[in-house]
Design brief:
Structural class of chain A: mainly alpha
Number of strands of chain A: 0
Number of strands of chain B: 19
Low-confidence stretches of chain A: none
Shape of chain A: flat
Oligomer: heterotrimer
Number of helices of chain A: 12
Number of helices of chain B: 17
Strand content of chain B: 15-25%
Order of helices and strands of chain A: HHHHHHHHHHHH
Chains: A mainly alpha (about 300), B alpha+beta (about 525), C mainly alpha (about 325)
Radius of gyration of chain A: 24 Å
Structural class of chain B: alpha+beta
Strand content of chain A: under 5%
Mean pLDDT of chain B: 88
Radius of gyration of chain B: 23 Å
Largest sheet of chain A: none
Largest interface: A-C, 68 and 58 residues
Chain lengths: ~300, ~525, ~325
Amino acid sequence: MGRYVARRLLQMIPVFIGSTLLIFCMMYALPGDPVRAMMGDQAYDPAVVASIKKDLGLDQPLLQQYVNYMTGLFQGDFGTQIASKRPIADIILDAFPVTIRLTIFAFTFVTLVGIGLGVIAGLRPDTLRDRGLLTLTLVLVSMPSFVLGFLLQYLLAFKWSVTTPTVTDSTDFAQLVLPATVLASLSLAYVARLTRTSIAENLRSDYMRTAVAKGLPRRRVVGVHLMRNSLIPVVTFLGIEVGNLMTGAIVTEGIFNVRGIGVEIYEALSRREGATVVGIASLMVLIYLAASLIVDLLYAVLDPRIRYA
Amino acid sequence: MRGARSAKWVAGAIVVALAATACGGSGDGEGKSKGSGPAGYVSIDVGEPQKPLVPADTNESNGSYVIQSLFTQLLDFDSKGEIVYTNAESVTSDDSKTWTVKLKKGWKFHNGEEVTSKSYIDAWNWYANIKNNQQNSFWFQDIKGYDDVHPEKGEPKAKAMSGLKAVDDHTFTIELKYKMPYFNYKLGYTTWAPLPKVFYDDPKAFGQKPVGNGPYKFEKWDHKKLIQVKAWDEYQGPNKAKNKGVQFKNYTTVEAAYKDVVSGNLDMIRQVGPTDLPKYKQDLGDGAIEQPYAALQSLHPAFYSKTFKGIDPKVLQGLSMAIDRDTITKTVLNNTRTPAKGFTPPGVKGYQNLDTDVFTYNPTKAKQLIKEGGGVPGNKFTVQYNTDGGHKEWVTAVCESIRKATGVDCVGDPKPDFATDLEARDNDQVKGMYRGGWVADYPVNANFMKELYHTTAEANNGRFSNKEIDGLMNKADNANSLEDSVKAFQEVEKKLVEHMPAIPLWYYRINGGHGKNVDNVNVDFHGDLEVWAVTTK
Amino acid sequence: MPDKTVEKKVEALPGDTVSTAGVVVADAGPAPDKARSLWSDAWHDLRRNPLFLVSAVLIVFLLVMSAWPGLFTSASPRDADLAKHYLGKPNWGHFFAPDWLGYDVQGRSIYARVVHGARASITVGVGVTLAVTVLGTVIGMIAGYFGGWTDTLLSRLTDIFLGIPFLLGALVVLNSFNDRTVWVVIMALAFLGWTQIARVARGAVITIKQADYVVAAKALGASTSRILFRHILPNALAPIIVVATIALGGYIAAEATLSFLGVGLGDTAVSWGGDVARGREQLRIAPHTLIIPSVMVSITVLSFLMFGDAVRNALDPKLR
């Protein structure tokens, strides 16, 4: 197990470097110069632009810039923003907790409601209840989050005035309900469908028949035997989903005025604050990599057939 | 106190507000309590300044709002665009080349340091120095010796501009490189603010916690949430604060800010968003503010492009007459603009009523003019704009108006963001026209012509070039008095109608508002709310 | 986002597939000699699946709409009349008339825009899916068949692309194009989206590679390309098709999302996502400008998802 983890961690290094380099290159290839953009469309002085770029090292070749950036990153330095001159670490620290709160909220929602619905449907496959839930999840999946977001915003906030259209205080969980629901909807539908399929399949398996034949109480059969085996693919999915929820926040945060990394990265992108974009993206890549490692390890724990040497 | 802020971010900022773009704005107004902060304070929606709070490094509207409350420069303007002396006793010149500044005595910075000639001269020298990378450094380029501290390339040759000389503690002279009859008007821009000695110890720290000489004293900056300033009792200027302090609150969307104004959590909003515009007058009653200010939006042909190279001005006149400005401002733009009737907006010295029908919708004449002028090559052109600024709808509407009236096809050429848009303009890659916005830096008509259509003007991205116009402008610049200069520029404006360096579309209007807790909310010449004059009820 | 819409079970393998080869075998589908019956069985199933029939009808309808929008409306999606129609409300009784679904902020017929907008969405959806399938299958097959260093290299490459958040990547890539035509959007999405199929293809090929008939073909001296295209590809196709059909709906949603964020199709293109973004400002005074194109996006995505779901059920032997 230890060796396996070590090997996986080693494998992560080239992946991490590759992903960040790719994002770095893409940012670099973008038209538009962040320093020039700062000057706006009234008169400006090109000499000042050149001088600022020189001071920031933005006049160096791409690879050199990447090496400089990575060196800083490994020393815990995310760099500073071009316009505000604030450390990017500060900006991330401000924005990250907001997104994490939103993500955790959505994630809890996905797990509880998704698995719940899946179990309800899966235990009675092909009944009306099952069909109904399947259709509902299909409808949820087919609504891109911005569609669902606006629909709920329109109905709940403007039409019925149940909630405020946007979040004014991101520490108030009551206000986060709406954005978290929208963020969660897609994954929730997947989790429900996945759980349902998995449970329906395992219901017919031999070990279930054995368990029932042994005369075990139904609660135990379902709660222990069925659930443990059926949840393996769900857990895998959930693990990977953490990362997806975080990027999904770009849209949701924008609609509901939540100031997390989604909004931050979108703004940084349009201002060409390359270091900010790469910094946040690197964190996302790291979270993704960590999540997939954890998922694989969980896999081994849950499924005794799998052993990592 | 208001100094001019540059148009760029108006083009950007106001419209970002207007657009309520997918993820625009900044901050979610966190940390705001019920009511509006400490007793006697007023609050306004002003987002996170883009840069540290140094006067010469700020040119976008959020930052300049804060800078204006913390710093006072030599002079300012009233709502008619006339000079009002603030820190200066007088600014005079006999020959428009050497200017003498007399400071009022007894003025102090918030830390008790006296404001002297040196406070100004040292600050201006620091601002202008290329090594300090100040965004507005070019504002000092008219001063003699600027090229020594700010060479095109390489290290500065001197530390101070030779044109600045202190006569005594409260008098100094500014010698310019050339005559400039309206130079004193330029001094109203926030960039000309003085700095205390503590600044030079650590400019970086100063930018986070500035010490100024303005009506308000800096209190705190909670990044992306709030900036708070407190009225300064010892302030001696005419714009002494009539409230106890100001909170500049950051909102991600104008909708959220607007809701807070209606519910009383916020006192003032600078611009109501499009979703709320149809009914904000009902909601706010007397609190609704609607007022034009000195800013203009235009379409600028790229005179180097295939389409508009050597184009007959008649064609441009025709295109101008094919735009139904009245309907578009009333519908798509929700009355946030007033149709333009010339190259200079009202509220600016030298604004005049041009006797022409070029800016009036007339499809028949438009068609005829375009035909006479030889038509648009390919019968098609593009209008470049940035999608992150809320320009998409009006560009589309203008294009459709032209297409319907004349049959000339017109399509938008969107750039995903302002950075890309500017790069294409700088590198002469505009394929047809581009949209431009300009807010008065100083309320003189020269600002709307010299800086936009002179062959050497930095912001002349359409590369319009006409020897006759250049000559007239140079002559107007060399006039002996401001009045003569303004008059000469009025003649230039009349000439511009014949040459059409751009198609003026409309003047900006501020559509803001305030809640029931405050009163006396006025707008200055470039559309900023005057926070110092606001009173609480 | 498309990466989510992929049925995870198909590729619910941990990153280190070697150690879980057993799982792959279980999932990889058809035993060789059943290959033919798999497809005919599937078709048999599909014909009787109401979900499939409904979605197929809807898809045909959408395809016709995108190919010949003129059949549905004579109004132009560009013609605007601000003076008369600014934000005109829908006239529900006037079926298929220009004012049926009302007018948008420019005074253009929303019905005409909805009809003409189908082409962009469908072309992007189908185009990306085809591109992704080809690219992913080729990379996955090469990695799976040759193994060793090639595999390590390609697998890490897949990991790298998988590590980049899809939406973020698409935002950055599309930002760098000024003229974002349908083809640019297709290429950008394909550039970021091929990983899923590559993984599935690789897994399937690794399993099939060990099958007797492949070993036999090799022993008989068949060329590599013959083995790959005659023996392996046809048998690896089922899981790939499943993933691809389900992903299709996701790509349509992705295009709409990107257009909504302002980096989708260019300005002159009529696109549902763009119209939703535009309608956002009128949400309070004229909600129909936002809701109608949103509903179209959803219906389209739903049709393709149902279709994909039906195909998966038919092709997945475990569910039979």
